[in-house]
Amino acid sequence: MLNRRLIRIRAMQALFAYKQAEGANFQLGMDLIAETFAPDLNSMEYQDREKLEGYRKLSQQIFTETISKTAKKDDFDPPREVKNAVDKARDMYLMRNRKDAEHYANRSIAEAEKVYDLYLLILALYIEVADRAKLDDTDSKLVDNQVVKAIRHDRNFELQQIRRNANWKNEQVLIAKFYREAVKKNPYYTEYCSKKNHTLDEDVAILKYLLKNVILKHEITMEYFDRENMYLVDDIETLRAMVTHTIQSIVETGKIKVELLEEDWEQSKEFLQTLYRKTIYDNNELEEYLVPKLKNWDYERIAIMDKILMMMGLTELINFPSIPIKVTINEIIEIAKDYSTPKSGQFINGVLDSLSKELKDKGIIRKTGRGMLDNK
């Protein structure tokens, strides 16, 4: 129902948000150290500013090296005050990272489900517009549209609306405005209403037209959908495909087929959560595989989205034996084309292709079933 490309994009977006939070948490750790060694202007005791500044710099250096895993093992034993400040900053940093990791894990599921909610809202919008048209114009034929009738009386649609609370009950002013400003004077719609009777193909055609040229374009609906879904721009094609498939189903089967969130969603959620969590929690292991392949590049200067996509791709290659290697790499490349730099696809392809061969030879990547057959 919600395709794997959308699920991968949600994982990528969640990982990007987490990386941003991780950076903010690091800065909070640096700020905590700075506050620890800031002179107490209200103290009656002497404040050795030079010593405090030295402790601050040393603590922030050790904290940075600890977090970036570049700390060198030596016999240097920092002062107790420095150790305590670093430990406190590190503990706060790790604690906040854990909370943020879980926050974005949960949000990624909610954001993916919002695509389904918008799908239901668009189907419901056809009914709302048809009812509004009947109130405003006696010559409107949309209320008699065979597809609209089928959606209105479909039990699955009714149940999904109730479960997901996907309705326009509190948006009747918006519905009226949308009908009058976006639909009523549309020439294709007025031509449709000028005919007394319509074939099923004509009924399907008007709904597809409104979807593509009005509902998913007009500022009234788009502003509303944008408030409901922060990733709307990324999801428009998925929404269009889902709604179109439902509209077309009445032609192909004689009855409307409303998509159900429950169909394969548990499996998709598991895929999303595993891809997201493994990329975060197996970060050290993944970097051990990845960094040697990047010896000709400065790892710290590689675009953050390229890093995320390579780590995601590597996570998928290792943890999902039934997904063919070629499928994983091709999907990551396609996402890179849309979300990263112009040269990212080629760069990521080279790295993942080389890594997949090496890790497959070592037995770290193991493909079974269809995944194995597709990669022989």
Distance linking N and C termini: 29 Å
Instruction: Categorize the overall geometry.
Output: elongated
Proportion in helices: over 70%
DSSP helix count?
16
Instruction: Tell me the Rg in angstroms.
Output: 28 Å
Tell me the domain tally.
3
Q: What's the rounded overall pLDDT mean?
A: 91
Architecture overview:
There is one protein chain. With 376 residues, this protein is an all-alpha fold. The protein contains 16 helices and no strands. It is elongated and about 90 Å long. The two termini are 29 Å apart. Mean pLDDT is 91; it is low at 371-376.
Question: Which terms summarize this structure?
Answer:
disordered C terminus; mainly alpha; 73% helix; 16 helices; N-utilizing Substance Protein B Homolog, Chain A; single chain; 0% strand
Record the SSE blueprint.
Layout: H1 4-36, H2 49-68, H3 80-136, H4 146-152, H5 155-164, H6 172-183, H7 187-194, H8 200-215, H9 219-228, H10 232-253, H11 265-281, H12 283-290, H13 304-319, H14 325-339, H15 344-361, H16 370-373
In short:
With about 375 residues, the protein is mainly alpha-helical. It has 16 helices and no strands. It has 3 domains: about 5-105, no CATH class; about 115-255, no CATH class; about 280-375, Orthogonal Bundle (N-utilizing Substance Protein B Homolog, Chain A).
